[in-house]
Amino acid sequence: MITKLGEKFSYLFLKYMPDAFVFAIVLTLVSVLAAYFLVDASLISIISSWYDGFFDLLSFAMQIILILVTGFSIALSPIIGRLIDRLTKYISTPKQVYFFVVLIGLLLSLVSFGWVVITGVLARELALRIKGVHYPFLIACVYVSMCGWVTGLSSTIPLLLNTEGNYLIEAQVLSEIIPTTYTLNSYLNYAIIASFLVLMPLFMMMVGSKLKQIKELKELYTSSGDIQSEKSIKNEALSMKLPFRAYSDYFNNSFLLSGLIVVMGLSYIVYYFATKGLELNFNIIIFTFIIFGLLLHKTPLRYCIAMQRSSKNISGILFQYPFYAGIMGIMIYTGLGEYLAKGISSIATIDTYPMYAFFIGGLVNFAIPSAGGEFAVVGPSLISAIQNIGVGLPEAEISAMISRASLAVAYGESLTNLLQPFFLLLIIPVMGMGTKLQSRDVMGYLVIPFMFLFVVQLSLVLWMPM
Q1: How open is the CA angle 113-116-117, to the nearest 5 degrees?
Q2: Alpha carbon of 276 to those of 184, 271, 279, 353: distances in Å?
Q3: 217-240: burial string, b at 16+ Cβ within 10 Å, e else
Q4: Whether 349 contacts 388, CB under 8 Å
Q5: Dihedral angle at the C-alpha atoms of 368, 411, 154, 432, nearest 10 degrees?
Q6: Phi, psi at 3, each rounded to 5°
Q7: Deepest of 27, 36, 363, 429, by most Cβ within 10 A of its Cβ?
């Protein structure tokens, strides 16, 4: 029953869902209409807000691209290839592939959502080695595994609440920080983590094991020649040497040059974590990926080749991020985001506010697919509403209510990623390389996991003790 429903959704998405870029254009127009009719903004102010926001995510987009290509380049190293070869000795059936890809991906996402790139490469290699893996569904498994990031060490909203002098404190929405004991280390967050790790690998394995009309990666591959015939990075580097002795070849293939940079980089990484603890952000993850990529590929030229291969299919991120930034500009600068937050939070009660926070997170995510950017829009109104609801309660209880609502926004934001293709831009370039796969080939398989997780997470958000 569940599998048949999933296949039906897959057919509907294939039939009706446009390209991811067209999806971004449609969302832009919907945001324009909403701002015009709901907050009475003039067309020129809406267009100006769209332009003002258009380039707000450029640094974020660059960070995402660097996470993608540096993470992929690590996965292209010989040692990772050998580890995958060993892993395939223990994973031999499609059911096991679905189970372990989701499980491993969830564990990696607890560190950083950028590590979904590593999960994607692992999944692709397993699909090449193991017969009978339904590849579009496997991409969906990788995407589902990324949802766990919101409960982990790089979860944006809890880290923001625990940051001294954050914009909520500066705006006097909060009087002091909210420690992660209320958020990441709460019983609610541990329950969400457990629901991911225990339920989702089994659920995706069950659905995937009953799929019909299997589409293997080798069948989808469109490039000429065999999918595994690409020259190794080491051999490509050797083939680029000149036929005579040259200092340029010595520098290009120097272990010493790479080694010096690696020593410098590792020294800083050790210093960073020794002085700041496990404080993860995009910059330290990218820096770590670059240094470990150099270490694993050994020479500058090999690393350049790996990065070249990793960068082949990132055009979607390059030109679609500004359009989502433009939508975010409309939400922020016209007041549309604040209007939506106030409207929903105004009808919330002490019993229902977590549900409405969950809905706000999921709804606004379609327009602002960035947890930090979204919370900047809806957070102040939501927190103020909760403070009004909790008038007369002890300060610790109000902090717990704000924490529950903030987590609910984060969970809702992460969950509705399964219904829109924005963050598939992280995975399709890696897993779809050499094929014609698009977001619409994958999205249908995400509806059933969304429905399942929606029920589980909303129940926990409402009733799980903090």
Answers
A1: 125
A2: 18, 8, 6, 35
A3: beebbeeeeebeeeeebeebbeee
A4: no
A5: -70
A6: -65, -40
A7: 429
User: pLDDT digits over 328-376, tens only?
Assistant: 788 878 888 778 777 766 787 888 889 999 998 888 888 777 677 677 7
Q: Give yes or no for a contact between 76 and 430, defined as CB atoms under 8 angstroms apart.
A: no
Structural domain boundaries of the chain? 2-221+312-463, 246-310
Concatenated DSSP letters of 281-322 = -HHHHHHHHHHHHHHHH-SHHHHHHHHHHHTTT-HHHHHHHH
Is the overall model pTM greater than 0.85, yes or no? no
Identify the CA nearest to 163 among candidates 273, 281, 56. 281
Q: What is the distance between the alpha carbons of residues 332 and 33, in angstroms, rounded to a whole number?
A: 15
What region, left, alpha or beta, does residue 368 occupy, with left being phi > 0 and alpha being psi -120 to 50 degrees? beta
3 state DSSP class of 172: coil
Say whether pLDDT at 174 is over 80.
no
pLDDT of residue 88: 74
SS3 at position 240: coil
Nearest to 156 by CA among 197, 122, 134, 184: 184
Rounded to a whole number of angstroms, the distance between the first and last alpha carbons of the chain is 35
pLDDT tens digit string along 27-41? 889 889 989 999 888
The DSSP code for 166 is -
